[in-house]
From TrEMBL:
Coiled coil: none annotated. Residues 1-48 form the Lipoyl-binding domain. The gene is accB. This is Biotin carboxyl carrier protein of acetyl-CoA carboxylase. Keywords: Biotin. InterPro entries: Biotin_BS (IPR001882), Biotin_Carboxyl_Carrier/Decarb (IPR050709), Biotin_lipoyl (IPR000089), Single_hybrid_motif (IPR011053). The keyword Endoplasmic reticulum does not apply. Pfam families: Biotin_lipoyl (PF00364).
Length: 48
């Protein structure tokens, strides 16, 4: 993936927010499950 590629959607109060990548790389691991509650700053992915 390249920087600025949308890597996921986060739903907050029925609004879906696109989350872009900050850096280029490959997603090696997803750190949260669909439906998990997350807060600002929570790591979502581990990059390789």
């Amino acid at each position: 993936m390249k920087a600025d590629t949308v890597v996921c959607l986060v739903e907050a109060m029925k609004v879906f927010n696109q989350i872009p990548a900050d850096v280029s790389g490959t997603i090696a691991e997803v750190l949260v499950k669909s439906g998990d509650a997350v807060e600002y700053g929570t790591p979502l992915f581990r990059l390789a």
